[in-house]
Each structure stands twice: as structure tokens, then as C-alpha cells.
Amino acid sequence: MADPQDAERPSEWLCHPLWSPSALVDTSQTLLDPWSFAHALVGVIQFGVTQWLFAPILGISYLFNVAIHCGWEMFENTPWTIRKCNLFENGYKGDSWLNVGGDVLSFTVGYVVSWTLFQLDALLIVSWACALLAAHLSFWPGMPLSPDQVSLYDPYIRRFMHR
């Protein structure tokens, strides 16, 4: 007979060391999480600002911007910032090294895809940025596609997911 608590546990495919589906709980310990979309969006924004201000060569621009992003990652994991983050995510311990790598990887994807789209048509970058923002926001509680909306509030989907 199945344990009644099994219905409350997420499916194995939802909680893998490489992915965490929650934007508010147990983030920053896996390679990717919903915040990965936000890091990719930062890559888009930094690409746009750099293009607008300097119109640089990709390699120099990327190295400059990834250094800024790595600086943010170091600041994000200071005790002061961790205390501030705990106001939103109770029990936040800071990023794991795996997650820091995932954040920089996500930033890189956002930046490089933006550069590629810029070669085709600059307006494509706006669509890319909107898609990343929508993906990030869809994981927040209360949003229509967030895991808590899909699996906790809809008993039919919840039953289907836990078979």
C-alpha cells in the first residue's frame, strides 16, 4: 500500500540534482532552477547595454560581462546578502558551487543567444527577453503554470503526476 505522504512528495523527475522546480524553496542547490531564466535574462540585458554603449566585439564584451556576473555571484553569497534573501526564502543558505556554475552558464546562454539573434534582427532579442521573463515568472506561486498551481491545486493533475 502506498504511503499517504507520497502524494505530497514531488515526482522524482521534478527534483533532480540538476533541476529544482521551485522559485522559493530549495533553490540555489541544483545546477538549474527557475532563477536560471532570470540569469539568462540578465545576459540579454547586459548584451543590450553593452551593444548600445560600446558596440564591442563579442569576445571582449562577453569576458567583461561575465566578470560582472561573477562579481554578482560573489556578492550574492556574502552573509549580508544571504540574510536579506532569507526575508523572501526562509532557510536560504546561499548558492552551491554547482548552482553558481549553472547561473554563469545560464547568463552565457542568454548573452550568446542574444548575440546570435542580433546578427539576424535586433528585434528578435525583445522576443527572446520576453520568453525568458515569462518562463521565470511561470514558476512563481500563483502563476498559472507554476508547479504549485498545477500539482497542488488541481486534484486531477496532482493524481496524474503521482501515478
List keywords for this structure.
single chain, 163 residues, mainly alpha, disordered N terminus
Topology:
Elements: H1 35-54, H2 58-76, H3 79-85, H4 97-120, H5 123-137, H6 147-152, H7 155-161
Quaternary structure annotation: single chain
Percent range for β-strand residues: under 5%
Largest sheet: none
Helix content: 55-70%
Q: In total, how many domains does the architecture comprise?
A: 1
Following the backbone from N to C, one meets helices and strands in this order, namely HHHHHHH
Tell me what you see in this structure.
It is a single chain. With 163 residues, this protein is mainly alpha-helical. It has one domain. It contains seven helices and no strands. The longest helix has 24 residues, at 97-120. The protein is globular. The two termini are 13 Å apart. The model is unreliable at 1-15 and 144-163 (pLDDT under 50).
